[in-house]
Amino acid sequence: MKKISARIKEKERIQIKIDSDFIRLDALLKLANAVMTGGHAKIVIQEGDVKVNGEVCTARGKKIHKGDSVIFDNCIYEVI
């Protein structure tokens, strides 16, 4: 039997600094340049492609606070 090995690409970690108490999820994705427009953010969030603190989030208005992490498109966005 032939042995198959695979390498799993490690997710890139990107820190996003905010000056307010929170930022909306759709605005965070735009700020991080993860999406081109707010409409694109709305689509990827509603389709379940975004995780907040490890759980799928479909609410584009979700408040993201310092210390939260958002995973999208093989990147981890850490809010600081």
Strand content: 25-35%
Query: Tell me, what's the shape?
Result: globular
What name is given to the CATH topology?
Structural Genomics Hypothetical 15.5 Kd Protein In mrcA-pckA Intergenic Region, Chain A
CATH class: Alpha Beta
Total domain count: 1
Instruction: Report the major sheet.
Output: 5 strands, mixed
CATH homology superfamily name:
RNA-binding S4 domain
> How many E-type strands?
7
Summarize the structure.
With 80 residues, the chain is α+β, with helices and mostly antiparallel strands.
What does this structure look like?
By secondary structure, this protein is of the alpha+beta class. It has a single domain, classed as RNA-binding S4 domain (Structural Genomics Hypothetical 15.5 Kd Protein In mrcA-pckA Intergenic Region, Chain A), CATH 3.10.290. The protein is built from two helices and seven strands, in the order ββααβββββ. The chain has helices at residues 25-31, 38-46; strands at 12-16, 22-24, 51-52, 55-56, 63-65, 69-72, 75-79. Strands 1-7-6-3-4 form a five-stranded mixed sheet, with helices on one face. A two-stranded antiparallel ribbon has the order 2-5.
